[in-house]
Each structure stands twice: as C-alpha cells, then as structure tokens.
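During the second half of the funding period, the structural biology subgroup turned its attention to how the target accommodates small molecules. The most pressing case was MUC, which had performed well in the primary screen but for which no bound structure existed. We therefore specified the complex as follows and requested a full 3D prediction, including the ligand pose.
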Amino acid sequence: MSTQTLVLVQIQTDDGYSGWGEATTIGGLKYGDESPESVAVNIREHIAPLLLAQDERQVGALMYRLRKNIRGNRFAKCALETALLDIQAQRLGVPMSELLGGRLRDSVPVLWTLASGDTAKDIDEAQMMIDLRRHNSFKLKIGLNSIQHDVNHVLAIKKALGNDVSIRVDVNQAWSELQATTAIQQLQDGGIDLIEQPLKAENRAGMARLAERFSVAIMADETLNGPQDAWEVARLNAADVFAVKIAQSGGLIQAKELSTIARLAGISLYGGTMLEGAVGTMASAQLFATFDELEFGSELFGPLLLKQDILAEPLQYRDFALQLPTTPGLGLALDLDKIAAWRRPA
Ligand SMILES: O=C(O)C[C@H]1C=CC(=O)O1
Ligand SMILES: [Mn+2]
C-alpha cells in the first residue's frame, strides 16, 4: 500500500462535547467488505438518522438501536461507538479505558511489520527498530511466494536477530492445509512464535487440526468478525490466540466480549489493527489496556506508517510500546486544520 484513506467520524453534542471515532479499512474492499465510501454513505443515509436527537449519554441503548436496525457495517458502528464513548468518558472526566472495564497498564507493546520481502533489508530495518527501542518483535507477511521461499526468508531473519527477538508470521489465509502443515513444522522448528491465520477464514476445522498438531501458537484473525465468531472458534479449539480488532469486531464493547470469551476459553490475546490512524489506534489501545493479559502484545503501529499525522501532539511510542494518555476520553488532541487540509468529499 502506498496510500491510506482514514475514515474519521465526529459526533458533536448540543452542550459542546465532541467525540471522535475511526472506520479505516485496508485496501479499499480487498481485505474486508466495507470501504471508506460505503462507511461514509451508510452513516450519512442510514445510521446517523437513528442517532440524531437521541440522548448521547445512553451509549448502550444507542448501540442496541444500531444493532437492531443496521446489519453488518461493523466498521461504521465501531467508529460511532468510539465517538460516543469518547464523549461519555470526557463527561465523566476519565480515560476511555475506565468505561471498558478499567485500565490495567499505561502502555501497550507494539511490534513492527517487516514487509519489504528482501531478507537483508528486513534484517537491517529490524535492527534499526531495536536500536531505537521502538520495536523488538516483528511480524512478517508471507504467503504470496512459494512455501520454501517464504520459510527460508523468515528463518534467515529469525537466525540473524536471535532468540531474544520474537518473530511471527501472518499468512493472511494464503495456505492450503497441506501447505500449512509443511510450512508450520519448519517455522516451529526454527523458533517462530506465532502463525497468524494460515488458512481461509471459513476453514475453522482445519485451523483446529493445526492448533492440535503444533505447539507453536496459531492465531485467528480474519475468521473473527465479532463475538459470535469468537465463541465458535473457541468452541472448536480453532485457535490458540485471538487477534482482537475493534472495527472488525463491530466496536469496542464487542471486542471486549471477544477478550472475555478468550479468557474463559484459555485463549491468549493479541491486539490487532486495521492500520488505523491515531483515533482508531488510541481507541484500540484504550481497550487493550484493560485486558488481564496481553500475552502477544499488539500491532498498533498504523500511525507510524503515515508521513503526516492529524494530531497536535504526536502519539508517544517509546520503550517498544505505545504510551497511553491519562487525560479524559480518548486523550488525543486532534489538529482540525490538518484534518481539514486532508479532507476529501464524502
Ligand atoms: O493483520 C492483518 O491481517 C492486516 C494488517 C494489519 C496489520 C498488518 O500487518 O496487516
Ligand atoms: Mn492478520
């Protein structure tokens, strides 16, 4: 990807509060079934009319109204719920995490994705991130090349970076079960820590067989589109780890439900991203900070991919983690001039 369209949603109240949410998608319609344009038009035409003139303090009742009247549109719902919770938390004078069960940590570990495909370049990039103390875990996107090419690439990087550096792979559904079995055996033997969504989202039985067969952690990503999916995946033992994404889950509260299902089922947690900018990233961090355990850290690096951000004060990434503000709501100071300058017609 060389460009990204951020979808930002603002809700304003009669008494002067302003809340923000984000519904950013990856690659138009390549990754999921909502696009920036669909989010904008569906909010404007179908969803906002259900919220206008309602009492914005009744966040649960409003989201219930949306669930009853609007099918799908998980990203749009997430953005609206985030904005409502931002307002509510500002009203109460607490960080948003306090409305999501309460904060257990003030920072969230963040890994980095190495995606150049060039082994030497990726090793250099990883080493630079370690030296900067920005990231010390890395995720490699694989699945587009032959199995052996990808495995060699990953294992060469692991070997160069050593035992203290966690290397994971995201296959984005690219492998057949047979291919996965061959590849994961080698990745496990080479000390790789996590295999993300090796099989198609629909093939949960296959994921369960892989999770049973291998000791390396198998993570569910694209197969999790809300609590119902999380329940099914847990029931089938089809993952060792959940990638929790607030937009993919249909909002912060439903994403919290994913984490509860995981906890009850003994499944570990990882904080996922849809490559959101600062708003969705901070909303995600506010949720991930409430998880009892965040064993595999997070990938909340979306804002670091952008050449310019939309904040008056940048997010704080240091000591291999994103630091959470303690100010009310999302805790972000948005630069409205920058947003206006980047804005395009909805
Ligand atoms: O995880 C995905 O499948 C999508 C995307 C988000 C972060 C990243 O590295 O890729
Ligand atoms: Mn993924």
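Two results from this model are relevant to the next phase. Residues 26, 113, 139, 170, 172, 221, 272-273, 275, 299 surround MUC (ligand 1) (CB under 6 Å). The first strand starts at residue 8 and ends at 12.
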